[in-house]
Amino acid sequence: MVMQTSPRNYQDLIVWNKGIELAKVIYRLTQDYPAEEKFGLVSQMRRPAVSIPSNLAEGQARHTTGEFVQFISDAEGSVAELDTQLSLSIELKFCNDANTERALQLITDLRKMLNVLRRQLISRG
Are 47 and 73 in contact (CB under 8 A)? Predict the structure, then answer.
């Protein structure tokens, strides 16, 4: 289940908790990137990783379905951005498939969960 019947706050959202987990995974993963990437790819990856749960928190806190749906769309964009940057990191050999496996799984999960949550909110209208 993506969203409990009546979440009291964003911390009740399973998808928000997965977003927090992904942000922690990305922070740990990028610690070992080359020093010259600190203000490049590392910064570019950490920003959307933090943005995913942040958008969910802000959207849920607005208490209107329309605004929440917009923030979910923003989170979906951040998931796609992070997925692209992770793919580039693998191509550049800054990390490998073994140490990105959890991040890639969380990205897949979040993509699906955000889509379901958006559709649930829209159908409740």
Answer: no
